[in-house]
Structures are given as structure tokens and as C-alpha cells.
UniProtKB/TrEMBL annotation:
Organism: Rhodanobacter glycinis
Alphabetical list of CDD domains matching this protein: cupin_NimR-like_N
GO terms, molecular function: DNA-binding transcription factor activity; sequence-specific DNA binding
Entry keywords, A to Z: DNA-binding, Repressor, Transcription, Transcription regulation
HTH araC/xylS-type domain sequence ranges: 204-301
Keyword DNA-binding (UniProt): yes
Protein name from the UniProt record: AraC family transcriptional regulator
PANTHER family the UniProt entry points to: HTH-TYPE TRANSCRIPTIONAL REGULATOR NIMR (PTHR11019), TRANSCRIPTIONAL REGULATOR-RELATED (PTHR11019:SF159)
Matching Pfam families: AraC_binding, HTH_18
Amino acid sequence: MIGSFMAISLVPVFSPRVRRLNAARCCGLTVRPESAYGVRIAKGGHSVSRSRQHVGSKPAWPVTALAKDYPKGCQIPRHRHRRGQIIYAASGVMQVTTREGIWIVPPQRSLWVPAGMTHEIRMEGHVAIRTLYLDRGSSMSLGTHCRVLTATGLLRELMLAMVQAHRSRDRERMLMMTPLLLHELRGAEEMAIHIPSPSDPRLRKACQRMLVDPSRTDTLDQLAQHVGASSRTLARLFESELKMTFARWRQHVRLARALNRMSAGYPIKKVARDAGYASCSAFSAMFHRILGVTPTGYMKQMSV
């Protein structure tokens, strides 16, 4: 499993149990002893099931909500939900890891996580999360794969209003807003901020080399030599397993590094250099090509 973007290891240093406990304590969550049903309850809004790996109880409302702020570096351990989940980053950058890869969620964007999808979340900076949990009937039209979605002004206000309505137990208001929420989510633009996870050991080794240091300038030939494969074989693996070329995959990795650095307040020139670009113009071109906005424009959006 791929872990933190900044320090990724293919071999876990600790057992999964120890890592989950440490991650929960990192976030200031108190982990109680396991019950007879194998469930640990973490104060702070999450319950992690050891035997079934489900989070939360099954609510009667079609949509329920949770609001919580997390400190920099906090990690919510691996878990899954009975309901589909919209995770909205009101501020800060989230890194969400699933079996499909790494998803980067910038501020004022949201991530759709289907019901039953095991995932973990790492906070890159201080992050304010607003989460909506949708029952199966409401979420079927949103798909079975994770997707980073843009949030229009209306969608943002709807999510925040639903968090408030759930907090005040205003069921009637929640029911009235749910159809409009689903309509906006179905029409939301998808953002290509995804780092797919490989399964072939040679491809995993090549990807690991770049994930540890996205500023590396290795060519495909150099990576192929590093993993003991031909460049043609490695190129084919990128296309067949990750559904993108090596160049495009590396751009996504560098974009993830850039978003993390920008959320921490680094100047764009340093962000570009840390992401492996020799000039701000080349970095800006990549940034605009993927996100549809320049780095400067993105920073202005985030400051609103």
C-alpha cells in the first residue's frame, strides 16, 4: 500500500495495527479498548471496525454530515464506510490513498469515495474537512470509483448548509436540499488529480523512485535500467496498468508535490523548483494544463 506522499514505503515499518493506533494518536484521537465485536471507537467522529472495517453506524437519514478540523500531518487510518462519502476540503490539502492510488484534494474541492472503498487520509497542512455520507439510493448515480470534483459556489454552500442542518437535527431541511445536492454532484467537473497505483513489481519500483523525489529528472530509459526492464516494456506497463504515459504520470506526481508546497505557503518559484521544473513558465504550463488555472490564479482562488 502506498503511504504518505512525502515518505512512501512499499514495506511497512510497523504492523497495520500499530500504524493505525499511532495515526489515531497523532490526530489527538483517543482509542478505546476493542469491544467484543472488534470495534475501536476513536473520539473525534470516527469508529474503526477491526473485523468488518466499517466506519460509523447506519443512520436513518438519506444524507448525514460531519465537520472536523485536523492538524498538519494528521492521518486518519485505513477504514471504509457503509455509505458513499463526499469529503470536502474547506481549507488545506488532503491526500487520500485507496487501492486505486493516491488522490490529491486541494482546498475547496471534494472527493467522492464510493461505499465500501477502503481508504486513509493524510492532512498536508491544517485541514478543515466537511463530510457528507450518502445512502445507497442517493449515491448510486455517482459511480464506483473515487473522483476529485470541482465545487461550484452553489455546491460549496449546499455542503456547508447540510453540515449545519445535520448539526441542528433539521431533518426537513436536509431532505429538501438532498435532490439539489445530488444534481450538483452529478454535474460537477472532474479534476485529474490522481496518481494511480501499479501492481507489477518493476513498475512499482520505478514509481517508488519518482514518488520519493518528484524533482528527479530520470528518463524512461534510466528508470528502465534501474528496474531491470527495457524502456519499451516499462512504457507498455505505464499504459496498460496506469492508463497514462510515463510523462503524464510524472506530471501528476509533480503536481501533487506542488499542491502540498503551495498549501504550506511556499513561493511559486520554490514550488516549481521542488517539483522538478527549471523555470516557472514550464511549471505554470503544466499546472494550467491539468487544473485549468495558473498557479497564481489558483493561489488567488484559495485566498477567497
